[in-house]
Specification:
With 343 residues, the chain is of the alpha/beta class. The protein has helices at residues 35-40, 93-99, 123-127, 144-160, 176-191, 217-222, 224-236, 267-286, 307-320, 325-340, and strands at 55-61, 77-83, 104-110, 131-137, 163-168, 200-207, 242-246, 291-293.
């Protein structure tokens, strides 16, 4: 019987298996990219360097007109939308605006939702300045009878003006029942408008909405009121001609001045954190083409403020969200020019 001879063992004599030769990297891999390559992938602008070319103050109360010419951190205030607190324009009001070196882009004349005005002044004929309508929506308009009248009055306003400002003085952004009542009002007031009539609706006092500043951001994210805010912002954006104004909120605190870099609990930075939380859902739903900047708070607010402090907060908040120059220019001037300027 024969047996097959086993294969010889390679042993140490044959040597160990050597690693393969790795390809060497060219020297260009360790040198910085050429100028042409870096231009293709530019770094985003730093927030401190992102400023609008000019500012249109699209929400200027008539009692704040004397502050309209204030310098906003070196940015020119090129014009304003003037909100009257009385249907009759006070004598000399426009001359006062010229003294303040502020061009009035449009005049918003107030009306009440409780009844259709029987006689309404037309200031555009005497002044040559475009006129729009302005009203306030409050909790008192949520009752069925009051809401029916508000729908009729809004329908009249939409039929007689190319633009209607609504100061929302009810917490529609966090309260579901209040939001549904307001949405129902808008839907019924716009339902019978001719298809070729496009009326711009501009809401204020919802960005930022009423808020409890003592609520930490970590808890705000999970709070039902913030979830409702996100949902209601998205739902309102489905109205095609609806815009939102970024105006000072009713937070029961004075708007803080410039940031203090030495303070860990600086109020300016704390406000910015909260403001950016509210910007996000609106920016996602509306895009920057339907957000408009203004410096005056709601007429329901007890006092005015320093417009430069509010401008600094808003500009820095948007810049830190990495929006580009086109967005900054649109929010702070171009959007207001487009909808409030001469038709």
């Amino acid at each position: 019987m024969s047996f097959a001879q086993p294969l010889p063992s390679p042993g140490l004599a044959s040597g160990r298996r050597r690693p393969k030769n790795l390809p060497s990297l060219p020297l260009s891999a360790f040198s910085p990219p050429s100028t042409g390559t870096s231009d293709m992938f530019p770094l985003p602008p730093t927030p401190s360097a992102l400023f609008p070319g000019e500012v249109i103050d699209a929400h200027l109360r008539s009692d704040a007109l004397e502050r309209a010419g204030l310098d906003l951190a070196g940015t020119e205030v090129a014009g304003a939308v003037l909100l009257l607190n009385d249907p009759s324009m006070p004598e000399g009001l426009l001359q006062s605006s010229l003294t303040q070196n502020v061009r009035i882009l449009s005049v918003a004349t107030p009306f009440e939702l409780s009844a259709i005005p029987s006689d309404y002044p037309d200031h555009s004929e005497s002044s040559g300045i475009p006129q729009s309508f302005y009203t306030s929506y409050a909790a008192s308009h949520e009752a069925p009878e009051a809401r029916s009248q508000a729908i009729e009055t809004l329908r009249w306003a939409f039929s007689n003006s190319r633009l209607v400002d609504i100061d929302v003085q009810s917490d529609i952004m966090s309260n579901v029942a209040k939001y549904e009542a307001f949405e129902d009002l808008l839907m019924k007031a716009t339902a019978e408008l001719p298809g070729d009539r496009k009326v711009s609706i501009v809401l204020s006092n919802i960005l930022p909405p009423p808020h409890d500043l003592s609520l930490p951001i970590v808890k705000l994210l999970a709070d039902p009121s913030y979830r409702n805010y996100q949902a209601h912002a998205a739902s309102l954006s489905l109205f095609p001609n609806l815009y939102v104004k970024f105006t000072p909120p009713m937070w029961n605190q004075t708007i803080p001045g410039p940031a203090d870099p030495t303070s860990e609990m600086d109020q300016h930075r704390e406000w910015k954190r909260k403001i950016k939380m509210f910007i996000g859902p609106v920016l996602e739903a509306y895009g920057y083409e339907r957000i408009i900047f203004g410096t005056s708070p709601s007429f329901a607010a007890p006092s005015l403020l320093n417009p430069a402090d509010w401008y600094a907060l808003v500009r820095e908040s948007f810049a830190e969200l990495a929006v580009d120059q086109d967005a900054i220019d649109a929010i702070f001037s171009l959007n207001a020019k487009r909808i409030y300027g001469s038709p």
